[in-house]
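Predict the assembly for these two chains.
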Amino acid sequence: MARVIVVTSGKGGVGKTTTSASFSTGLALRGFKTAVIDFDVGLRNLDLIMGCERRVVYDLVNVINGEANLNQALIKDKHCENLFVLPASQTRDKDALSEEGVEKVLKELEHMGFDYIVCDSPAGIERGAVMALTFADEAIVVSNPEVSSVRDSDRILGILQSKSRRAVEGREAVKEHLLITRYAPKRVEEGEMLSYKDVHELLRVPLLGVIPESDDVLQASNQGSPAIHLKDSDVATAYQDVVARFLDEDRPLRFVNYEKPGLLKRIFGGK
Amino acid sequence: MSLLTYFFGSKPKTASVAKERLSLLIAHERSANQPTPDFLPALQRELIEVISKYVNVSADDIQVQLGKRDNYEILEVDITLPDQSK
């Protein structure tokens, strides 16, 4: 059985696509056959973050409309053997996504032997976002430690609990995970930023991980290589931890406490 | 930090202000999005029947609401009794 995981947030710019790219890569690196689907029809960007933008020929809407089959549309990732990207259409709008169409694509991916299907949701709570979460078995809610992001996360949790297929059919609820991104331990320490404990307490969803704020994320997207591949990067390590925890491995939280730089570091600088 | 705040104590940290605002807002929005349990109208009707046996009240004088505070659900019944002097 394939597991469908939606990466969602309500608010834009919090790190959904960055997370979808790194999380799906992490699952593939662990040996699972993984597909990652961009649901942001009209504003596709997952292809850029994954570095496969020049290999896009067909997209999700083409497959839904029967203009191409899945084998033609799926793009094999250049780094990972088991990872495939299904890009969004750039020319259509989100009305091109039908519930039956999306269901058909997901069923077919399951028949192709995929273990995990990661759905990268667009921002907002309109059609694209609802389509991305409709068939989810699990949800990763990405939130920044910031008021508007936390509020929107709560809103999207409500939508998961009312509009997902699991909720509508009264089956076991979608398994929710909270992922806090762009976390700055120093600012938390100084009382300028909500702590991960605060956000967790407010949203009451099990915490999957905390990704530190880092310049590395921009470096990764510049090159079109998911952040999890970065060498010697806290962000990459944090995403590897996230994947491990998702697979029920025990990993303590890292990068959540601020360590004052030592004297040498203060004099000579360094990251 | 300015000299003034240094001497007269600092303002509350913005993160705790954020948390307080959010906890109020989220609690409010969660309760607003929840469908009201369907026994409430019936309960309100029967309360009016019982109370109007003893006191002269109309339907508008009784408000029944289900709220939430922390982990408790609160059934709030608000009855406005008519003015005695009338």
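Residues 63 and 78 of chain B are 5 Å apart (CA to CA). The interface with chain A takes residues 13-16, 18-19, 21-23, 25-26, 29-30, 33 of chain B (CB under 8 Å).
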